[in-house]
Write a structure and sequence with these properties.
By secondary structure, this protein is mostly helical. 45% of the residues lie in helices and 0% in strands. The structure holds zinc ion (ZN).
Length: 62
């Protein structure tokens, strides 16, 4: 029996990460992502998603 629970992430994230609450950088990236998506530029929108996902938050941001 095989249980395949590995997420399929081959550069095509199915669930765009939500921007962190209170983070101006993530908020700006989310806006850019929406603009790129609306402009028919999904690869740029994905770039924004990657940046949001990788944006560090240690909880001590001021
Ligand atoms: Zn952030």
């Amino acid at each position: 029996m095989t249980t395949q629970e590995l997420p399929i992430t081959l550069g095509l994230p199915l669930d765009p990460p939500p921007p962190a609450h209170g983070c101006g950088v993530c908020g700006a990236l989310a806006r850019q992502r929406a603009e790129y998506a609306a402009a028919g530029n999904p690869s740029r929108a994905t770039d924004c998603s990657v940046e949001i996902r990788n944006h560090p938050h240690d909880g001590s941001a001021s």
